[in-house]
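Q: I have two molecules that I believe assemble together. Could you output structure tokens for the complex as a whole instead of separate predictions?
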Amino acid sequence: MRNLKAVLASAAISLTLVACGDNDTTEQKKEAAPAKKEAVEQKAPEKVEPVKIGFVYVSPIGDAGYTYQHDLGRKAIEEKFGDKIKVSFVESVAEGPDAERVIMNYAKSDYKAVFATSFGYMNPTLKVAKSFPKVAFEHATGYKRAANVNTYLARFYESRYLTGLVAGSMTKSNVIGYVAAFPIPEVVRGINAFTRGIRAVNDKAQVRVIWTNSWFDPGKEREAADTLIGQKADVLTMHADSPATIQAAEDAGIYAIGYNSDFSKFGPNSHLTSSVTNWAPYYVKRVGEILDGSWKGNQDTWEGLSADMVQVAPFHNDVPQEVRDHVEQAKADIIAGKLHPFAGPINDNEGKERVAGGQTMSDGDMLGFNWYVEGVVGKLPQ
Amino acid sequence: MIRIEPRLSPSKIMVYGAPLLAVGLTLVAGALLFGALGYSPTRSMYLFFIAPISDSYGLTELFLKATPLTLCAVGLAVGFRGNVWNIGAEGQLTMGAIAAGAIAVTWHDSTSFLLLPIMMMAGVLGGLAWAAIPAFLKTRFHANEILTSLMLTYVASLFLGYLVNGPLRNPEGFNFPESRMFGDAGLMPLLVEGSRLHIGALIALFIVLLAWLIMSRTLIGFQIKVVGLTPLAAHYAGFSPKKIIWMSLLLGGGLAGLAGMFEVAGPIGQLQPVISPGYGFTAIIVAFLGRLHPVGILCAALLVALSYLGGETVQMELSLPLAVTGVFQGMLLFFLLACDVLINFRFVLGSKRKAVP
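A: Yes, here they are, computed for all two components at once.
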């Protein structure tokens, strides 16, 4: 049944894409026309081959979500660097052997840089990077680097914390539902930051988590969301790539908070705000370095609100002014370093103290999160 | 006017000609589709079907991608011939990968040349054991194997998720759900230096030939075909349907498990939350595209593998969406089913049956 659904869904997607494809080509033609004119006016400037840059996406780009945000970053570099670069992407690349082939094909076809945007591309990226020391590789969310491999990540947890403040203020049932993909540290960190935000304004509220074991599975996400609604959740959020959770909240007449993209168009009545990731500044910076030759490997980037890599989407009308002010204040404090979502004292949800008062979790501890903070119901799958 | 008229007997030419005709029609329709999208049909067809395999690296990648598809499909086809509908090759593949991977992870610092053969055996046994469950349920309780084998696929993938999140997780991996990388002794030897093609591809080829021999030259092959075609005749002949069910499910499961072992000990090199991007399900298409014949399946697996590679190339070169790959595979199946009509029917010109002179 799920496969039948998938077939139908992909058929529908392919139809829309075919329709969109037509528009894209006409737009490209429109854009290309003035560029040509300029070239003529400048009287045959030196022909410089554009620098080729490739992106590898784990899911379809779609209308919102993780890959969609990366693709906005790709568009930002296209806009910024114009015909100095030629950018291409491959979407829905499975983590594993397929990823290595796609990355390899980029490297073999004289691409100067490859952005591998999913955790499971880590080992394939490193394997290919070894054979192509002159190609720059950028891997999102991983922890292994090399002379020509950088890693980068956004401090999602900062905006998660801010949206947690909103959820904690808006809930009446004091049950908040969380549809989550995989029990990996990155996702657990989001759950914990969100819960810390909720608990900062509402110490009675609880967060209930359901795992879907998939980054993108609208059917499972919808089921999980409906189950959480059945458990009296009146605010939902998700760490998954489809809008199913927002739509479930919309249908049930409760609130929802999005992740990665601004999901407001999927829930005009339910969508309070979203924790948004903005890769554009990072991509513009790195591509600039590749063009002027200053790019270096072995670097790790982990930036958040202060570098504009994470943002909070515009609020729904239902969010009262004092909540908005509180979020703004907390945001300013995080940027100023006065507030940290994981500043002690922090207890885990079994009552054990994990971070003492006056201390703040280190980046290393946050990167390896494998326990729930107080306020999350249940046990982390081990 | 053109009429469709039943043939007196199925056309021998069309049994083999229909798949070729379907491929041809897919190429024509694909070229038209690309043309309608505003891309040069010849260039896009070149990028889709020729460019991916225009160098030796591309060829090795094609064989690498076709290997698990072939192994799964050959095993499934034997069952399909005998009316045993194993839909769960994906789960059997996963269990094979788990069994082999658990051994590789446990003895990751072993340098023994025995490790790899043991992993292969474990892979086969893992898939075989998983397929034995539907076989037992079918023969003992008449439970429909389509349902049980499919459901067990989800159990297998959840079990894998549990293992890489827990017992088999890499202790140095920051709690990410992955096992450690296998040691060198736990990796398949490469066939071509500098590529990822390993000896599993040769073993798969050998298995294709073996399956062909078994199906065409042995009593058990004959029994499977008879049970599939006319169960009643098989009953009168005293062939045991239970034996056929057990045999074909265990064979399908074992081969799928071997395919899973080849994946983890080949291009992946570790256990991760998802092993196969749907090889077990795609193998069903491959089995039918290849007419349930081992050699046909080999060709079909190469063709389907090429469609994946080509889909990536047109995305990279033309920025076409991934859905193009799906559209191509869909057209291929559509034309194949449509062309199958020609086996039992033929087109005749003229509005009426001509009077006998």
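A: One point stands out. Residues 49-155+279-304 of chain A form a domain with the Rossmann fold fold (CATH 3.40.50.2300).
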